[in-house]
């Protein structure tokens, strides 16, 4: 990552960090540089608070999602259903593509999200098994 | 994935699929097997609707998150700030760990989520550049 060019503003001092890159810490020191920089720092801080709020919501929703998929896994195992359900998977792929477009999100990212939750379910299952515990039912098609 | 053992219920017929595995499609055909299976199918369908609602919320939130991080990237570039801000990254790692525990989510999954959004931001940037477009500002530290 190179530094952005064509800056029409004075650059605040960036601290050199390992690997030859540099960083700009968005804090009071940076804001003190000049009034225009202070406005930018305030805007970035406000956006970061929104990003943090989004992350809180997503982490909370992921916690609920794993609870639901565990329940589906237990129900399927008790009923003797196979974990796989490719019709469900196809439905989810098509659905996430559609809602991503509606939301203004690159549909490739929505598909990567789906693959992420599937991969995490698999890893979580393996971690519990490796630790000698009962990993329960692995159901990535919930 | 092997089929679960110790099923105390009659198994509905599973369809053989490629790779030697089998699947159970949760649908009206499966529910018709017996009344107890019908109850399980209804429960799974209800849970799947909740999973789909969670996914709709997460995809919508991811769309907003990428909009916010793009704005931070533009602000940093205009101000001549470096993209990197390791203090911010450390803060996010610690924060996501904490809120995951509060939410009942494995903190490793929260960290994987953070790495997922960072990786997707990088890939998205590369895709736009490869397509000959202006990828804008890559800012994975937003």
UniProtKB/TrEMBL annotation, chains A, B:
The keyword Isomerase applies. Signal peptide: none annotated. One of its GO terms (biological process) is salicylic acid biosynthetic process. Residues 1-32 are annotated as: Disordered. SMART domains: CM_2. SUPFAM superfamilies: Chorismate mutase II (SSF48600). GO terms for molecular function: chorismate mutase activity. Its EC number is 5.4.99.5. Residues 38-129 form the Chorismate mutase domain. Pfam families: CM_2 (PF01817). This is Chorismate mutase. It comes from Bifidobacterium bifidum.
């Amino acid at each position: 990552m190179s530094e952005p060019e064509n800056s029409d503003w004075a650059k605040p001092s960036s601290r050199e960090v390992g690997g030859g890159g540099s960083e700009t810490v968005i804090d009071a020191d940076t804001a003190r540089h000049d009034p225009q920089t202070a406005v930018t720092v305030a805007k970035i801080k406000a956006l970061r608070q929104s990003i943090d709020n989004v992350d809180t919501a997503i982490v909370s929703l992921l916690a609920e999602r794993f609870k639901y998929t565990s329940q589906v896994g237990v129900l399927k195992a008790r009923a003797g259903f196979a974990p796989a359900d490719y019709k469900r998977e196809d439905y989810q792929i098509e659905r996430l593509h559609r809602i991503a477009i509606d939301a203004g999100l690159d549909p490739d990212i929505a598909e990567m999200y789906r693959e992420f939750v599937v991969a995490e379910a698999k890893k979580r299952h393996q971690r519990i098994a490796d630790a000698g515990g009962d990993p329960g039912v692995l159901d990535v098609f919930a």
